[in-house]
Design brief:
With 205 residues, the chain is mostly beta strands. The protein is 14% helix and 45% strand.
Length: 205
């Protein structure tokens, strides 16, 4: 009886291996649907640094009706976090695909009488290969921009003691054919007391 049970277990194990091998050979994505890797980290640019390039110009074809930068484009936009204004951001995009900008803001937290001053400079490029995607579907006309840089934050507490911090900033955005744009700012930090990375929104008027 024991030999019979062992034989059944062995047959079941072999059958499982065969099924796994068949799924691999048939390409499992064809069964569960394609995975769009270009949209997988749309809100996590630290996973997409391969999109930052050092060689220009960036190839622009306008395929699918995607926005094209033919002349220098300057984007000025207010920055918002949790419904509160956080300064303004300026981004300049060149026809060769280079993107760079500056952000500055100052604000107070009345609950603890602390004040914050933040400045950030960043540089990157457009990336026409990325396709915009949200719960409503895809929009192939929007042009993606990704940049990386450094930000400096100075916190002044109620005792007028200053606490400086400097770390990485990412600024990303989507540009429409009418030259309007919207995007996000990510302030990165390793400080456990900072409660994770800070995320801000920007949108041109």
């Amino acid at each position: 009886m024991r030999e019979k049970n062992n034989g059944s277990v062995l047959i079941g194990l072999l059958a499982g291996i065969v099924i796994v091998a068949l799924l691999y050979m048939l390409n499992i994505s064809a069964i569960f649907g394609p995975v769009d890797k270009k949209a997988a980290y749309s809100e996590k640019p630290w996973f997409e640094e391969q999109r930052l390039v050092n060689q220009f110009p960036v190839k622009q074809t306008g395929k699918g009706g995607k926005a094209i930068i033919l002349n220098q484009l300057t984007l000025d936009a207010p920055v918002i976090r949790h419904g509160n204004e956080r300064g303004t951001i300026k981004i300049v995009i060149e026809p060769n695909g280079l993107a760079q900008g500056h952000w500055q803001c100052s604000y107070e937290h009345p609950e603890d009488n602390s004040k914050y001053n933040i400045t950030a400079d960043f540089k990157g490029n457009i990336d026409p290969t990325k396709t915009y995607c949200d719960p409503n579907g895809y929009n192939k006309k929007l042009l993606y921009m990704i940049t990386k840089g450094k930000y400096k934050e100075i916190k002044t507490d109620a005792a007028q003691v200053q606490w400086p911090r400097e770390a990485v900033v990412y600024v990303v955005g989507w540009i429409d054919k009418n030259r309007s744009a919207r995007g996000k700012i990510f302030l990165m930090t390793d400080d456990t007391e900072a409660h994770g990375n800070a995320e801000y929104d920007w949108k041109t008027n």
